[in-house]
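Protocol step 4 of 6: structure prediction from sequence.
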Amino acid sequence: MIVGESQTVREQVSRWIEEGQNNYFGAISRVLQDYDRLQGAVESVERENEQLRGLVYEVEKLRNRVETGEHECDQLREEVKHLRAGTERHQREREEIADALTRAMNEALMRLRAQPA
């Protein structure tokens, strides 16, 4: 009986080895397919990453331009502020001169009217 059982065990082990080989090859094939698929995904992500780097560079350039524009805008606002202050000062000076001339003319008219004819 040991010989018969030994033969059965041997056949069973042979079947397991055959089935195992088929399973291993299937598993290896799936792993290789997954590797190829992932390799394609990696390449796609790398291309997208390069595009994003280009966009980041463009964003930095635009940010620098905006900062430069804001700086220029601040300088222009400051200049407008000074010009408005100058305009207000000149307006006050004109009003003061006009008031002084009006007073002087009124005084001259009063003197002329006060003189006997």
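Step 5 (inspection) to follow. The chain has one helix and no strands.
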